[in-house]
Amino acid sequence: MRFPGFSHRAGVICRMAALLVLSVLAGCASSLSAQVTRYQQWPGDTVGAMYRIDASDAQKGNLQFSAYSDMVRAAIGATGMVEARGSAPPRFDISLEYGNPVSQVWVQRNPDPFYGGGYYGFNRRPFGWGYSPWYGWPYGPVPEQVQIDVFKNYLTVVIRDRTQDHREVYRATARNTSRGDNLTAVMPYLARAVFDHFPGRNGQVVDVKYDLPR
Fold first, then answer.
1. DSSP character at residue 90
2. What is the pTM of this model?
3. Going from the N-terminus, what domains does the chain have, and what CATH number goes with each?
4. Which residue of 124, 131, 183, 193 pairs with 174 in a disulfide if CB–CB is 3.0 to 4.6 A?
5. Quick one: how far is CA 198 from the chain centroid?
6. How, if at all, do strands 144-161 and 82-83 pair?
7. DSSP for residue 30
């Protein structure tokens, strides 16, 4: 026995299941994107020059700052500088600013045809009610606006030269947007982005992308 509309609905379910599988597979090969804005007047002959990462009053003794400083140290090799040890006076002082303020944005989402109206029967449309085997005649599902949280992760690195009256010689900010509160997870990539192709051009804005481990 064949039931009206059963084969149609079964086909829709199969297609949606296939799309779900594809989206899961795509998520396994994900990447992280960041935008970097940099300003620089980088001096010459800096290979081997010493630097020191300085903590602000609010950052002193902060374990999060200590962890992020280690991530910056791991990425700073591209500059040719080495970290000052003990009482050795550095040429460059480095400061860090970071955060991930959350904001709300509106996005468009298609309603799930399996819930909130079903396939058959009367469904509410923008201009009244109508009957349709696919969530409203003669149109398909009506997109809806939903509000979601977005975290704006950022890292700013400022380098000052003591031989030039502590003048700024490099300032770069790497930004990344995520749905989750995961600043620590993305910080190694932000640090890497800050020093990617160091020192770059003054006033440069570049987009970078890194593959995430599977």
1. P
2. 0.70
3. 32-211 (3.30.160)
4. 193
5. 21
6. unpaired
7. -
